[in-house]
Amino acid sequence: MANLDNLEEIKQLDSKQTALSIEKLPFQFEQAWRESSQISFPSEYKAAQNIFVVGMGGSALGPEVVYYLTRERLPIPLTLVRDYSLPAAATKNSLVIVSSYSGTTEEVLAAATQAKDKGLMITGITQGADLGEFLRAGSYPAYIFTPENNPSGQPRLGLGYLVGGILGLLNSAGFTNFEDSQIESTINFLKGLNETLKPEIATEKNAAKRLASVLVGRGIGIVGAEFLSGNAHVFSNQINENAKNFAFPFLLSELNHHLLEGLGFPKALEGQLKFVFLESDLYSTRLRRRVEITKTVFAKQNVEALPVKLTGDSGLAQIFEALTLSSWTSFYLGILNGVDPSSIPWVDFFKSELEKSQ
């Protein structure tokens, strides 16, 4: 097993600068917010009656995080679409946000074309390519960014662009009211946090290295709730892709209605599962009580629950705190598994096989 304090071992496995992209997460957010906040929307966009955000894989994670963060302040419904087509409820009064980091996601391109054909209001976020051409050709107000702070080139490692970009678009269109001071405070908090989690910091003082060391060799459940629900999905996806390790998200209080009875069988799983609980003092009182009782039930069934207490002073700060911790933890878990955190060979194989059928 690799030594997480051996920087040379880490560099040998990290072929495409995954660690550097993670270090630049706050700079991605800073760039995306600054640039997307400057986009001007027509008055009819600001009068939209609902919003549909289309994205897949890593390009859907940012919108999902934003959805759970903003759902109690958005004045109109926001629906996430992970499909080739839009729901029937998407009408001319709908705003469609198409999200594809690469700009080549076929499901997003198909939904974008459908939105155009139906005469819907369209905006989007991408680094360019086919989706960038589509947005420019239609003169749609959109955020087309240059990913200068993601040297790895991997969409899942550019979440600062997707979260910051979607937030900026929603703010510019008048649907949210985040202040620049809130954003700046969060960015400064993240820069300080990153200094405690980067590879140069020894395991004994590095929370992400310690968490990865406890999770290695196990199937992993990530438990989130309320505004951190999107982070549970991000965390599990990052473990899947960066560490090549099985992980799955669970949400409170939904899991209380089924998962508590699903931990007994098969017996071969005994001792093979660990659950990470994303915890926050900003959760509602009732939800915090659910967290504690859920951990008690897990303990009675000999299933380990690992609490991760987030400390940011706002929901925005805590979602980025969780993004930072999950990025580093999944990276270090990949190193412990002896794999390159940047490579995704089976996803690449699938995409190449799918292209042959076109």
Characterize the structure shown.
The protein has 358 residues and is of the alpha/beta class. It folds into two domains: 17-178, 3-Layer(aba) Sandwich (Rossmann fold); 201-336, Rossmann fold. It contains 14 helices and nine strands. It has helices spanning 7-13, 18-23, 25-36, 43-46, 58-70, 106-117, 129-137, 159-172, 180-197, 207-215, 229-243, 285-300, 315-336, 345-356; strands spanning 50-54, 78-81, 94-100, 121-126, 143-144, 219-225, 247-252, 273-279, 304-309. The strands form two sheets. It has a five-stranded parallel sheet, with helices on both faces. Helix 7 links the parallel strand 4 and strand 5 (143-144). The longest helix has 22 residues, at 315-336. It is globular and about 55 Å long. The termini are far apart.
Short characterization:
This protein is α/β, with parallel strands linked by helices and 358 residues long.
For the record, the CATH architecture of the largest domain stands as 3-Layer(aba) Sandwich
Alpha carbon gap, first and last residue: 42 Å
What is the CATH superfamily of the largest domain? Glucose-6-phosphate isomerase like protein, domain 1
Helix content: 40-55%
Oligomeric state, counting identical vs distinct chains = single chain
Secondary-structure class: alpha/beta
What's the average pLDDT?
Answer: 95
Adjacency order of strands in the biggest sheet:
2-1-3-4-5
Radius of gyration: 20 Å
Would you state the CATH class of the largest domain? Answer: Alpha Beta
